Amino acid sequence: MVTSTHNHNQAGKDTDNKKTSGVVPTKYWHKVKDNRVQCDVCPRACKLHEGQQGLCFVRACQDGEIVLTTYGRSSGFCVDPIEKKPLNHFLPGTPVLSFGTAGCNLACKFCQNWDMSKSREMDILANRATPEQLAQAARSLGCRSIAYTYNDPVIFMEYAIDVAKACKPLGIKSVAVTAGYICDEPRQEFFQYMDAANVDLKAFTEDFYHKITGAHLQPVLDTLLYIKHHTDVWLELTTLLIPDENDSDEELNEMTLWIAKELGPDVPLHFSAFHPDWKMLDKPSTPPSTLLRARNIAINNGLHYVYVGNVHDKAASSTYCTECKKMLIGRDWYELSDWNLTDDGHCKFCGSRCAGVFDGRPGDWGAKRLPVRIADFA
Question: What CATH architecture does domain 73-371 belong to?
């Protein structure tokens, strides 16, 4: 990939001037024939004429270069439990300040955040916040981390990275909730600033990715391999199981064997229940039995931490010791109950290590959801 060769000193000045309008220069692009410019952030490689937007909606061609048009603008800010991302092994029980922008670089027919990710209306981005304001708000609210979520942060990576940079001196961690559809060079830069990630592995067939998400499987697998083997980012996976689309025994077996072999048995995997939404209203909701069947397949294939989501099942949502099999962390929806870990993450019963990022006693945020106005903390 060839990145742009425009003057980066001038780009810095342009950034300072344009941030208030939400438009900033970017660097992952190059010029192609027919006076078009190709965006090189994700494998879509959108080739744009002047004034055109990419499929993601937020990256566009202006003045012969690719710009991000939603810098500092959000569809809303909310304090959530970290378990809602979902992350079960990263600072359990703590609050996370969550936000997203608009648009997405996938075209999932089943999108469950379609009002934001599919939006092409700038008026949903009524909330503004600088990276410094977000970092200060997170600290004031007692949040241990900030999550870039609701829509995929790889498409607003410049904003997310600047927020992460502002958070680091304050001890605030950064969490990416992403589908992992990103090219190699921006992938390396983006995850350099992340502390944890939940990657949405939507299926394990190219056919599903092509027909239902408008994307491809291999770049997502490349992202998973990169995060696991080339970064210190804490990684968890989520798969939304859709009846008759990605829930067969064969596919689940193949996927979980790949995870165990290529990523290791300690990467937590969340199987979530689908509900009809967006352009897949004809599909039934996922029965709990499907989630449990998938969980059993994953455990039988060697995965240590496998969870169900979007259903009420404490037994299948809790964490167990890989050695003595006793419950380490009890979960009832987003509420923690049992806690049988030492401060440094070892089983109190047998001393075995539980994989994850733990910091003493768990938080007690629970299931609360708190919408916030960042302006109140400026």
Answer: Alpha-Beta Barrel (3.20)
